[in-house]
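In response to reviewer comment 3 from the previous cycle, which asked for concrete evidence that the modeling workflow produces usable outputs, we include below a single protein chain processed end to end. The sequence was submitted unchanged, and the resulting structure tokens are shown without manual editing.
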Amino acid sequence: MTDLFWPGDERAGTLMSDTALLEAMVRVETAWLEGLVDTGLAPESADGDLAGIVTADDLDALSRAAEAGGNPVIPLVQLLRSRVDADPAQWLHRGLTSQDVLDTALILTLADVLDRLLDELRSQVIALAILAERHVATPMVGRTLTQHAVPTTFGGVAASWLDGIVDAAELVIDARTLLPAQLGGAVGTLAATTELARLRELADPPAVADEVATIAADTLGLRVHRPWHTARVPLTRAADALVTCTDAWGHVASDVATLSRTEIGELGEPAGVGRGGSSTMPHKQNPVLSVLIRRAALAAPSLGATMHLASATTGDQRPDGAWHTEWATLRTLGRRSAVAGSQTTELLQGLRVNPERMGVTLDESAEDVLAERRGVEDLLDTKHDPDPTTYLGITGDLVAGAVERARTFLEENE
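The workflow returned the following structure tokens.
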């Protein structure tokens, strides 16, 4: 996929694309049908893999037909039934509702996004741990509220980025682990499936209905969970994790953009053919990766807020409108996060650090950045130390702690 409105969108590939959602919906229908057959609710002749029966060639027609019922599941079920044998057609979708299929399909496509982000985050953690250790003693000016403050090291800056990335990664892992299937039927009670079991004279019909849902969830590799038609935490949790990722990446990008300014020149983005060029100023090397990462970080919170607003306004046993708001919002947030994650990995793996320039800036500002130290020394009437590289507090310990945390994270999430 490409998107002129969002340069770099192709980095997300087919994640949360129309085709991905279509394939996921078909997987849900197949898994549910398998559960009906395995529990004896449907005959063996109803079993079958539905993959490939509906393809990307059907997307336009499905999209157009979706308006009539308000969602794409209704025309999808009709199309599947028209293309399979009589028994699978008769039992397809029995006991499900449209929201079950679409919610679970969204979860499946979201799982792919979270898996991609975990790969990116691991690469970022490795790159930052290397930078932090390599530059633990590379002195530079620390800045607060845009102004020179006191000395720090670039290793300390990288350690701060690293902690933010690991924080985000832990939320992504949590969200990924807790992704549930949504299998509840019309109002989340599995009434139709329970009734089928009763009519089949099976022992303990409620347990049979629950078993169908369990089989389907297991087949899809998702957590078994009570229906959550109007309890949208699975989606808001994932959205929060994505926004937190863009927060962490935005922090990195903001620092890189600032420190790569012409008059500062302490950092530089990885070079590439045509990267960072200007249409009219051939001398420029714009920090375009940082710009695009910051773009994602600025846009993501409003998407996350939309997910929470939708969650807060769900009503009855199935929501009207709020549910429909989530689909495109989550897709946009998921794809943009994947793009920003890829760009951040590239940025960190190729980041150019200029220790010499950092040292020059620190030396030129030594009088100012040691003002705090002189105040402390005056308290005890001691001689002023003019060397800014000896006023670094516990920076080394902070870097060591961040790197150790990163190593533990990588070991636990290989």
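The chain has a mean pLDDT of 95. We consider this sufficient to address the reviewer's concern, and the full set will be provided in the supplementary archive.
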